[in-house]
């Protein structure tokens, strides 16, 4: 085991109770990103997880998915596209509206962002109940992507979100919540 393999990245993630609302335990990755060595190790581990999928494109979920997808696209030599809320992308878009625990939300991509059959990996910071990640996969498939996987920094395994995602999921850090 190398020194980098021995580093526990969980110690760099701050837990904030009752954010953004009472009863929620927020996993704050900003404390991980502030530590250059820990962030480099994080990017290296994510790159090793994703590389076997041989993606043509990383699809970043707004907004914290941008934080991992941009440096990983550079490392892996692939493209990156953004999945955003309505009204944030110029030009023609493709939309997908999905249900949340309390209401609904919509994600969009630019209509010309994907060539049919491109190998795409979806990137986000956290997998909890799985609604957003599942919607991202559906939207990308609607646009013609071959979604080969999804990657997140943190998974709350007790919430069962992985089961909703129609793609293999790789997680860097898991918590039983």
UniProtKB/TrEMBL annotation:
One of its GO terms (biological process) is purine ribonucleoside salvage. GO terms for molecular function: adenine binding; adenine phosphoribosyltransferase activity; AMP binding. The keyword Transferase applies. Its EC number is 2.4.2.7. Pathway: Purine metabolism; AMP biosynthesis via salvage pathway; AMP from adenine: step 1/1. Gene3D superfamilies: 3.40.50.2020. It is found in: Cytoplasm. NCBIfam families: apt (TIGR01090), PRK02304.1-3 (NF002634), PRK02304.1-5 (NF002636). This is Adenine phosphoribosyltransferase. It comes from Acetobacter malorum.
